[in-house]
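Late entry, evening session. Most of the bench is empty. Finally got around to the prediction I had been postponing all week. Sequence below, unchanged from the version circulated by S.P.
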Amino acid sequence: MTSTVARQPDGTIAITITIPWTDVSKTYEDVVAGMVKKAELPGFRPGNAPREMVEKNLDKTKVYEEVLKILIPKSYNEAITKEQVKPIINPKIELKDATENKDWIFVAYTCEQPKVTLGEYKKAMGELKTKILKPGEEVKKPTLDELLMALYNNVTVTIPSLLIEHEVNRLLSELIDQTKKLGLTVEQYLASTQRTHETVKKEYEEQAKRTLTLEFALEEIADGEGVVISDDDIETVIKTGKTDEEKEALKKQRYYLASVLRRQKTLDFLASI
């Protein structure tokens, strides 16, 4: 396996991976051998049919699909280790060449944690409180939206297009689920809100950019300010489960809980500045 890396201006990383035909051929043989062991043909006990007979009945395309399922993850993991890439999402795979008797080539698109420049966000938090403070009134805490907007306006970060695409697809999937629950098609829902696929996609792209920017900014602040979540913090949340089943479900989401709690603690820190 050989690999080359091309880093794009927005932070997207394209890893071109070449798999020698000898590796493809060997994996093909292994896949066929596995299928032979499971094959059931009339007149033979399961797994005892002659390979030649089994292979005649195999769909070669499906065999190669299985080969790809084995080789792509294996080669990708080897490539990111070799190239010292630290992906934060699953790769988008583009198969370039999968011709018999030739080396196979595919491109894996991924990205790493983008660099965040926070700017004078602490000053912005202070100015925000000054703006909402009115003479003769008690000090009001800024709303969550106000805090986040003040932070967003003081952050510089280039979000890889791949990440935005990933988030937009998630939002579109949620939209499809929501419209199904309402008994509508997406087209009917869009018509009722006087929007089009293009305008919704543009809305979601802006929303994705804002959400991702804030997520990375909050993480950067949490790292810089030493915001940590203890086991006790997580256990306190788990104990809020009303039933044993709920508590068990929460225990299985410890990493997610820690992430949510750390983000909330970071927001509390911003509100306290």
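Two things to note before I forget:
Strands lie at 2-7, 12-19, 92-97, 104-111, 116-117, 156-157.
The chain has two domains: 2-111, 116-272.
Will write this up properly tomorrow.
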